[in-house]
Design a protein that fits this description.
Shape: elongated
Organism: Acrobeloides nanus
Number of strands: 9
Distance between the termini: 13 Å
InterPro entries: IS1016-like_transposase, Tnp_ISXO2-like
Number of helices: 9
CATH class of one domain: Alpha Beta
CATH superfamily of one domain: Ribonuclease H-like superfamily/Ribonuclease H
Protein name: ISXO2-like transposase domain-containing protein
Pfam families: DDE_Tnp_IS1595 (PF12762)
Helix content: 25-40%
Amino acid sequence: MNELQDFRLDDLYEKMQLEDDEFQDWLVSLGLLNGRYPCTCGNSMKKKRRNSGQIVWECNRAYHRPTQIRRGYKDGTFFENSNISFQQVFKLSYLWAMNHSVEYAEYETQLAHRIVVSWYKKFRKICKRYFHANPIRLGGNGVIVEADETFMTRRHGGRGRPVRRRSKWLFGIVERGSGRSYYKIVRRRDSATLLSLILRHVLPNTVVHTDEWRAYRALARFPMFRHRFVNHGANFVDPQDRTLHTQTIEGKNGQWKEWVRRRHGVIDQIIPDLILEFNWRERFGRRNVVFFNFWSQVADMYPCIQ
């Protein structure tokens, strides 16, 4: 798996030249495909290509006759139910990891729009599964986090006047210094909604900076946090203490909105998954290791027998 670190286009091109069996063997060496498959009889099944071209695991032991025991070659792996080649999936994953658009991936792979969209969605599910197992927790021991909510407005086709009935709030928390963040779409920005998210995603002994929005006043009831707020009606940065501000989260909000804007035609239903992808890239998206990080997590989530 380590060879996926600092993996470049030349490396990808080299792997795309491998014969099918060689490429599959390489995926086995990465822990992404099974190198063997145990049969219920205790024997190891053999990899076999059927007349139709389909690859299966098969046990021909006389114990099973007159029937044969078969399992799909991709069963239990990340590639299960895939109707495109292993090479195409791998190439698509590289384009996604390098933050290329669906349109660019369509052009490079010559795959149909629906196929590229479907695989990009599957790649984002890895981000989702990661954070389900490893919830985001920010702050701790005097670390400053900033919390803020920003209005999200959808327009018909991305144009025209805002449609308020389709509007939502984007609530965010950012850890000062590391820049790590947590985001969630909320329908209300009341105290119950925002405090429940802060309690879930901010560690004890954290300094929490907010604006003067009344929903944050209840933070005073929680001694594990030190709450400080800046009055945006007077100043964006407290003139008596230049460290008291929410400029970091406001800048992060702008990054998030720009990141979504570049994904033309985003529909509301996928925004929660895009948020998780955004947070995932903050942690694992450095260009020289993002591909390695993605497939390492896939290997952990879909363990294979080598």
